Amino acid sequence: MPWRESAADLARARAEQPLVFDTAEGRLTGIYCPADPAAAAAGRCILMLTRPRSHRNRMWVECARRMSALGFSSFRFDYHGDGDSEGESGFHNPNTPYREDAVAALRAVRAQFGDARFLVLGACFDARTALSTFMDEGEHIDGLLFYAAPVMELDTLVKAHADKKDWKHLLRALGNRDNWQVLADPERWKYMATVVGRVARRSVPTSGEASNDTPLADSFVHHFRALVRSQARALFIYGDADVEYLSFQVALDTVFARLSPKERARFEVELWPGDVHGFLNIPMQRRSLERAIEWLSAFHPAAAPSGNGLTNAQHGEENRSGS
Amino acid sequence: MIVHVHGLGVEQITLYRLETLAARAAAAAGYPVLRYHARGCGDSAGDSASITLGTLVEDARAAAEEAKRRSGATRVIWLGVRFGAIVAAQAAVGRDDTAGFVLWEPIAKSMDQFRGQLRGMLFSSVAGGKKPDSTVEQLFERIARDGGVDVHGYILYRELIESCRDADLAAALAAAGEHPVQVLQVQQRGRLAPAHAQLLEALSARGVRTGSACIAEEPGYQLMSNPAWQSDALTRATLEAFRALA
């Protein structure tokens, strides 16, 4: 059911406060939604990374107000060059996330409102930006909710593997519009993912950076390692029809596969039927939002010890069949 | 004093950055500007299911009052963006503080907006290789029966459509008085589109001072682009339109 604002939601809306903060790219504008003082405090602020800050159909506005009623504060803001913020607009490349903006936002919230512990979330470019915050603030972040982002740099692959028949064949196949339409068939997706994984395992490092021996984007690998170094839990959600899932499968077969059992247990992966990326239909929006609220709520100190995201993460369960 | 009246649904987002930049350009040129989110839109309170033409008009009027209170200005220029043009014109009815209207690619009749949204959704299906399962008229029937349909992640609600089924920009501008109107067309075509030309002719015939500019660009109103659409030409034309009204 679409959101119908309750009296409690309205009260939470009226409690929201603007926050403007400085970065090297200009002054950024955001909205802080304080935790409902009537609720037991969760002691965590959710940094919602979106473009623009309300996101499609205001789904993160609803999330902010409902989480507030559960005792969580949150902050949503516009990156430089977006929405109401200053700065130059540019193409948002998921492999060059706006880490400085997100880290500045987190620090501004800490300075202004005193929040000490954070949860971060986003989709696509915003998910990659959320992940990048672990480079600077990993010790203060308890959870990452990561929706449908690409984790591989196609250009790098083209350069590094131009002499490899398999990659050329694969990229040619992916560059053909007709094949994209065929990929609407889930069976075809499985086949393509298998091909990508097989080629990836045979490949050499994609850049001069010796520390990344995978075909994944260097930035993803570095930021993922920062996530691993932290003590945070993470939930990765993709749709089986998402183009982005193709590259994530390579991540599962490489950087995820190398984690120790203890590290791996902190991370959940869910694969849902359909397209998650873009939240382009109401049922997927609602499912994504409700899952976010469920998973984030489990970080409340008073949350039930079972039936929540923490328990799954602790057991390292990977749900590829949808839930 | 300039009051922006934003468009509906995803169009509020696709034109958001441009509104921000235009507002700052106007402020730099000496015009106080107020932008706001109507109830059920953006960061404001309210839910999308409760939006009607009546709530949109009420909110535009409240915004104008707040803008005047904060700036000390006595006259309002309404910047109506797409469907916001109809809202702005209706908001000006019965007021004595309107200095004029600047309209960005205005919607002439409310049903044109909804029909365009539904048509865009069907085109998108075709482009994606799927045969649409309904016509636009069948989708309207579904809205009447079920209360709404999902248009690319936004619900087009029956209440909104029914609240403004007969809303017409020309009629609303006529009811608002003889205020000058500047139409800024934003379409790929270089000449004024028939709907805009008819509107301006009708206004001129009533003695209303009018002007227009054609911005030969196409933002893709229903699609979020990366990066967000911007147009220096539209910002410049908007400033010129404000000067023409001043």
Kindly describe this structure.
Chain A has helices at residues 7-15, 59-69, 99-113, 125-132, 134-137, 154-160, 165-175, 177-182, 186-202, 218-229, 243-253, 261-264, 282-297, 309-314; strands at residues 17-23, 26-33, 45-49, 73-77, 118-123, 141-147, 233-239, 267-272, 318-319. Chain A is of the alpha/beta class and 323 residues long. In chain A, helix 1 (7-15) packs across helix 2 (59-69), helix 2 (59-69) runs parallel beside helix 13 and helix 9 crosses helix 11. The longest helix of chain A is centred in the middle third of the chain and has 17 residues, at 186-202. Chain A is globular, with a radius of gyration of 20 Å. By secondary structure, chain B is α/β, with parallel strands linked by helices. Chain B has helices spanning 10-14, 16-28, 53-71, 84-92, 110-127, 136-146, 158-163, 169-176, 194-205, 232-245; strands at 2-5, 33-34, 76-81, 98-104, 148-151, 154-157, 181-186, 210-215. In chain B, the strands form two sheets. Chain B has a six-stranded parallel β-sheet, sandwiched between helices. Chain B has a two-stranded antiparallel ribbon with strand order 5-6. In chain B, strand 3 (76-81), helix 4 (84-92) and strand 4 (98-104) form a beta-alpha-beta unit. In chain B, helix 2 (16-28) crosses helix 10, helix 3 packs across helix 4 (84-92) and helix 4 packs parallel to helix 8. Chain B is globular, with a radius of gyration of 18 Å. Classes of the chains: A alpha/beta (323), B alpha/beta (246). The A-B interface holds A 2-5, 9-10, 13-14, 16, 31, 51-54, 56-58, 61, 81-84, 89-92, 125, 181, 184, 278-283, 285 and B 10, 13, 16-17, 20, 41-50, 128-129, 148, 150, 152-155, 224, 226-228, 230.
